[in-house]
Amino acid sequence: MTPLDGTIVLDAAAMRAAEQAAIAAGESVESLMQRAGRAVGDAVHRLAGAHAVLVVCGPGNNGGDGYLAAARLRALGRTVRVAAAAAPRGAAAIAAREAWGGAVEPLAAAKPAPVLVDSLYGTGLRRPLAADEAASLARLVAGAALAIAVDLPSGVASDDGALLGQVPRYHVTLALGAAKPAHLLQPAAARCGGVRVLPLGIALSGDTRALPPPRLAAPPVDSHKFSRGMVALIKGRMAGAGELAARAAMRAGAGYVSLLGATIPQAPHALVRRSIERDDPLVDARIGALVIGPGLGRDDHARDLLERALASDRALLIDGDALHLVTPERLRARGGTIVLTPHAGEFHALFGETQGSKLAAACTAAERAGAVVVYKGPDTVIAAPGGRALLAGEASSWLSTAGSGDVLAGAIAARLAAGGDPLDAAAAGVWLHAAAARRLGAGFIADDLAEALAPALAAAIRETRA
């Protein structure tokens, strides 16, 4: 079993294409199903302790995987039962049922077991479960001490993470071959529990991956404050938002942080304050990342500040109010390195209402704006022009606090100022932000979050060295 970090993520069509390519190269549907069933059986055997197992099977290939998993568990000496919603359809699923060879209980009559394995429906499902199926599955999951979904919890849409009906919560999901968007997109991701990938030995390719831990290093011995990265932030009407972003940038590794247009006595002494009205600090070639938007406001003065930022040739991070004052066309025409960090409301203000999944919307937006888009929320999608994308797993729900987005902007800016690929910088900032929240636990505020970036950064550096 493989954790999700950094693994490829495939939608239903891409997964089918990979399977078809394997079949064209000499595999068969039956051999792929046998491989999947064995992998599921072995994984359940490791997870289930000494407890009895109930495998519930659907009529399609996901059900076929379940029959073969049950046969594998029986061969390993397990006490295992099988229940089915309907007779198998298709030659491979029928052969899998015959390989099981044991009794098959009607789903509606099946009694719960300590370990429940849901192999009813998997990738490609587009309709809700029948009412009797959904009720039986919910009853069996509720009666299990450990509920395991095969590939996906039955009743979720693989590509956009939508719930097609009432879907119970599982403890573990065993993704077959590759992770699917629903393993990381809400609300489905919250139903999956811990997700582990079971490799099936087929070739996979694609531009979307689960967010990996960043590979970060301590500054070289000959570093100085500007070589570590200089971040400049333009203050808006709500000065505290800019200060939060500045604190975050300092704690996330920037060597020099300047707040432009601010006089905030309580800010750290290490924060450089400069006027933006009396001179032009944006021409400073040492600026590695320029941030505008946190607490900016949406009046004419805010528009003027945004135009000055857009006229600069610095790598630019746009957040908050500034996302309401610009268009994708203006951003694409500006060119250069741009990172956008919208939440859902800001995303729709900038790009309009979108169709399809959050992943598809972010990728389309990145192409339209010519920018890296960090589409924030309970799930976060990071997309770059050209199709590369990263999906971040579930983060702390305590991040739903005022100012946490400002902290994220500062964290990303610090990594952006250090140089390198802007998608990687955005990914590192998102990862550090979530890691800082995990360290704090419950009840934190954004000020705490900014401070917690430093130990999160130190831990990431230690992991990179290991």
TrEMBL record:
It catalyses: (6R)-NADHX = (6S)-NADHX; (6S)-NADPHX + ADP = AMP + phosphate + NADPH + H(+); (6S)-NADHX + ADP = AMP + phosphate + NADH + H(+); (6R)-NADPHX = (6S)-NADPHX. Residues 15-208 form the YjeF N-terminal domain. Keywords: ATP-binding, Isomerase, Lyase, Metal-binding, Multifunctional enzyme, NAD, NADP, Nucleotide-binding, Potassium. PANTHER family: ATP-DEPENDENT (S)-NAD(P)H-HYDRATE DEHYDRATASE, ATP-DEPENDENT (S)-NAD(P)H-HYDRATE DEHYDRATASE FAMILY MEMBER. Catalyzes the epimerization of the S- and R-forms of NAD(P)HX, a damaged form of NAD(P)H that is a result of enzymatic or heat-dependent hydration. This is a prerequisite for the S-specific NAD(P)H-hydrate dehydratase to allow the repair of both epimers of NAD(P)HX. Bifunctional enzyme that catalyzes the epimerization of the S- and R-forms of NAD(P)HX and the dehydration of the S-form of NAD(P)HX at the expense of ADP, which is converted to AMP. This allows the repair of both epimers of NAD(P)HX, a damaged form of NAD(P)H that is a result of enzymatic or heat-dependent hydration. This is Bifunctional NAD(P)H-hydrate repair enzyme. Belongs to the NnrE/AIBP family. In the C-terminal section; belongs to the NnrD/CARKD family. Pfam families: Carb_kinase, YjeF_N. Its EC number is 4.2.1.136, 5.1.99.6. It comes from Sphingomonas citri.
